[in-house]
Write a structure and sequence with these properties.
The complex is a heterodimer. Chain A is an all-beta fold. Chain A is built from no helices and twelve strands. Chain A is globular. In chain B, the strands form two sheets. In chain B, strands 2, 4, 5, 6, 9, 10 and 11 form a seven-stranded mixed β-sheet that branches. In chain B, strands 1-3-8-7 form a four-stranded antiparallel β-sheet, with no helix packed on it. Classes of the chains: A mainly beta, B mainly beta.
Chain lengths: 118, 115
């Protein structure tokens, strides 16, 4: 079974600064997908960024980027130029590749509450 | 695209009553997931369907919980009878078929309060 661990329950950062959220996972799979989801107070789960394990290049989406270390099973999220709207709970998640006839579930970490201070 | 639609957004019910949560997945998606979010247990998968067939219901807490997917555009999660410990946010998510971009799209969730 896969497990996902986020060791930072809470973090804070000043507006315009950079912050890194940590995530480690455990799996015996060689191919899989990793995600960071954002959950603001509205509770909507919003996909921030995704990474395919077979790709060595780290994914980037505007101010969000990841540091994917496959051997270390580490998947951290870096938020540059933090904005007040980035305040939210951030979840790291793991997904095995879907099968030919079935979808694939997400396994979530415990979450990190990020607060961006003005 | 309207996204995954869940109803109701909020539900308050008395212990012992039946509760039905509803979900409409994104058109064309063939996998549907029900997750529960609580402070104590975080986000946990309850059940998921592929092509309307239940694939894994090992996360369903007990017989009081049941889920159906009668067609590709509708699913229900029913709790009968409800108990205070069922209070949580319930999310429905859907995923596209194999070969499409692999990710899950979430609805806005139903906040259930059982008093």
């Amino acid at each position: 079974a896969q497990t996902v661990t986020q060791s930072q329950p809470e973090m804070s950062v000043q507006e315009a600064e950079t912050v890194t959220l940590s995530c480690t996972y455990d799996t015996s799979e060689s191919n899989y997908y990793l995600f960071w989801y954002k959950q603001p107070p509205s509770r909507q789960m919003i996909l921030v960024i995704r990474q395919e394990a077979y790709k060595q290049q780290n994914a980037t989406e505007n101010r969000f980027s990841v540091n994917f270390q496959k051997a270390a099973k580490s998947f951290s999220l870096k938020i540059s130029d933090s904005q007040l709207g980035d305040t939210a709970m951030y979840f790291c998640a793991f997904m095995k590749p879907p099968g030919e006839t079935s979808g694939s579930r997400l396994t979530f970490g415990e979450g990190t509450q990020l607060t961006v201070n003005p | 695209d309207a996204g995954v639609i869940q109803s109701p957004r909020h539900e308050v019910t008395e212990m012992g009553q039946e509760v039905t949560l509803r979900c409409k997945p994104i058109s064309g998606h063939n996998s549907l997931f029900w997750y529960r979010q609580t402070m104590m247990r975080g986000l946990e998968l309850l059940i998921y369907f592929n092509n309307n067939v239940p694939i894994d219901d090992s996360g369903m807490p007990e017989d009081r919980f049941s889920a159906k997917m009668p067609n590709a555009s509708f699913s229900t999660l029913k709790i009968q009878p409800s108990e205070p410990r069922d209070s949580a946010v319930y999310f429905c998510a859907s995923s596209p078929p194999l070969g499409a971009r692999t990710e899950a799209f979430f609805g806005q969730g139903t906040r259930l309060t059982v008093v």
